[in-house]
C-alpha cells in the first residue's frame, strides 16, 4: 500500500508553502521523508541540492517543529535545550552559547531561561520549540501545526515570527488545519488527498481560479428609487442596501456612473477563502 504517490514539492528561498490535507492524506509521511525520518521507496528528496537519505549532512540544513512542541526535553530548561540541540547539530560550544543568547532574547525567553520547559506556558513552549529548530540557522524549516492550542496573543506572535523567518531567507513548509492562517502566511499552497497532490499553485492564483465575477459595491447613504431602477435596468441587483453586480470588470464603470455622486465605501470582488476551496477540492476528490 502506498502512503503517497507522485508527490513533488519545491520550495524557494524565503518562501512559505502551505502543505494542506485532511487527516491521513499523506502530509506526515511526506514531512518525515523530508526530515530524513522515513526513506522513500521511490523518488528522492533534495535539500539545497543534497539528498539527506544519501548524505546525512544535508539534515543540518533542516529545522523541524513536528507534532506541536515534541522536539523539546520537558525537564530541561530553555537554555539547556538550546545548548543540547546546538551541539547535536554540530555547532561549537562557543557558537552554541552565542546562538542561545540571541534566540532567548529574540523570542523573549531570557527571563525564563532557567525554568524547566514543563513549567512554561503553552505559548512559551511553542516559541522555544521554534527557537530550538533555528539554533543551527537551517535553510529549510518544517512547521507542523505551529499555532495549535495557542491563545490569540501567542498565535499572533508565531504568525509574525513565521513572516520574519521567511524574510530572512529561510524556506518554510507549513502544515496546519487552521486554513485562515495558511491563507494569511503562505506564498504557495499544495493540497494532498489520498496520497496525491490535487492542487498546487500560488495562494493568490488558487483563490483567483475559484473566484467568480460577482462584485459587491457599498455606498454611503441610501439609494433613491430612480437609482435603484437605473441599476436594475442594467441587470444589477440591490440587496440590503448593497449593489451586487455580476459581469466583466469593465461593466463596473457604468454602475459606478449611476451611483455618482454618492461616496463609495468599498468595491469588493466576491471570492472564496482558502477553507472553501480546500473543502470543495477534497470533496470532489472523495466523490471521484
TrEMBL record:
Zinc among keywords: no
Domain of life (superkingdom): Bacteria
UniProt xrefs under Pfam families: ABC_tran
Domain ABC transporter: 1-219
Keywords assigned: ATP-binding, Nucleotide-binding, Transport
Claim: Cytoplasm is one of the keywords in the record: no
Molecular function terms from GO: ATP binding; ATP hydrolysis activity
SMART domains, alphabetized: AAA
Protein name: Efflux ABC transporter, ATP-binding protein
Amino acid at each position: 500500500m502506498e502512503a503517497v504517490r507522485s508527490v513533488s514539492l519545491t520550495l524557494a528561498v524565503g518562501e512559505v508553502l502551505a502543505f494542506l490535507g485532511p487527516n491521513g492524506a499523506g502530509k506526515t509521511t511526506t514531512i518525515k521523508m523530508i526530515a530524513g525520518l522515513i526513506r522513500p521507496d521511490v523518488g528522492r528528496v533534495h535539500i539545497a541540492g543534497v539528498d539527506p537519505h544519501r548524505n546525512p549532512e544535508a539534515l543540518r540544513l533542516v529545522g523541524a517543529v513536528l507534532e506541536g512542541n515534541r522536539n523539546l526535553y520537558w525537564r530541561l530548561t530553555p537554555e539547556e535545550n538550546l545548548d543540547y540541540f546546538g551541539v547535536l547539530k554540530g555547532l561549537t560550544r562557543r557558537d552554541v552559547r552565542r546562538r542561545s543568547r540571541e534566540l532567548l532574547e529574540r523570542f523573549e525567553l531570557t527571563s525564563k531561561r532557567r525554568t524547566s520547559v514543563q513549567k512554561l506556558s503553552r505559548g512559551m513552549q511553542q516559541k522555544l520549540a521554534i527557537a530550538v529548530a533555528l539554533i543551527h540557522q537551517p535553510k529549510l524549516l518544517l512547521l507542523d501545526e505551529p499555532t495549535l492550542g495557542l491563545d490569540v496573543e501567542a498565535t499572533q506572535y508565531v504568525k509574525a515570527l513565521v513572516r520574519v523567518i521567511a524574510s530572512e531567507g529561510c524556506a518554510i513548509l507549513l502544515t496546519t488545519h487552521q486554513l485562515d492562517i495558511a491563507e494569511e502566511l503562505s506564498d504557495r499552497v499544495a493540497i494532498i488527498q489520498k496520497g496525491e497532490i490535487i492542487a498546487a499553485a500560488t495562494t493568490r492564483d488558487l483563490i483567483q481560479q475559484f473566484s467568480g465575477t460577482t462584485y459587491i459595491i457599498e455606498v454611503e447613504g441610501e439609494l433613491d428609487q430612480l437609482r435603484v431602477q437605473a441599476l436594475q435596468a442594467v441587470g444589477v441587483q440591490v440587496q440590503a442596501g448593497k449593489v451586487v453586480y455580476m459581469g466583466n470588470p469593465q461593466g463596473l464603470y457604468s454602475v459606478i456612473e449611476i451611483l455618482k455622486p454618492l461616496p463609495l465605501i468599498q468595491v469588493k470582488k466576491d471570492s472564496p477563502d482558502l477553507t472553501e476551496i480546500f473543502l470543495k477540492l477534497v470533496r470532489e476528490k472523495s466523490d471521484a
